[in-house]
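WARN retry 2 of 3 for item q-0093 after timeout on previous attempt; input resubmitted unchanged.
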Amino acid sequence: MIGVEEAAFARWICEGGQVVLPVRLLEKMEALNLPPEHLGYLVLAMARCQEGLSYGELARDRWIKWCLAEGWARWQGQGDNKSITYSPLWERLYEVWRKNSQEDNLAAGWQKREFNFEKILKWIDAERGSLSITLREKQVIQEFNLKYGWSSDFILIFLQLAFERGNRQVHAYQPIAKKVYESGIDTVQGLIKFMDEQDWVQYKTAEIKKCIGQYGGVTRPQREMYLKWQNQWKFSHEVILRAAEETVRTNNPNFKYIDAILQDWHEKGVKTIQDAEKAMSEREKKDGSHRAAAVKKRINRVDYRNWEDI
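OK item q-0093 returned
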């Protein structure tokens, strides 16, 4: 049985996030001309990108600057909304794989390879740092294979590129996967190009609207509010989505309500889902104490005078 100290240690490790590298990358380091010490620089840069840094902070980081200079990463987006993508790394690894491939049609025929469902589940668990995949997500992965004809390798590349955008829920990218399939994309290079061209702020904001029961196009104020949460307050998409879910319990869930919750979390230093759950629990306890105090006050105001004698 795991002790309290061991459990606290495990939580501490998982809450810090993880940088997950495929074993194939480690196997092909020599072919990629990537020395072990440079792999360390690459891992440090990836870790920095998970900290929600601004464009300026990213541009000044020594490890990220190294990755950009060496061609392992590149900028994506415009202006202050720029972020780092490691698409060049996966492109170069893909070229190594393609060069070593014995079949000429493998580059455009990933779906012909054997489907390994367990391999995908293990990768997702490692990426999240816990055994957290849901039945719904399993069904979505099976849809990628059975309906779209994607192999496990193609699905893994898709999820790697998708998870870089901040949300690690598989079903969140179901509409994007449908677009990839309908666009006839079946190569890694085509997939990388498609993913880089997506307007992810627009997509994420639309997902928040859907969560609170609002549909239709994303308005400019809604987009700007999301950018504030993401860039100024440094919230991940998962934390923003959790705030949106909290407003669903109210009579009128809306972006202003989400903004109020996130402002409270920002002032309390909330960074992770665990921090958010703790803040909500403390809020519920405080509200319960206030309600109890209000009831007691009303009881103390009861008039016990005998009105018949007056």
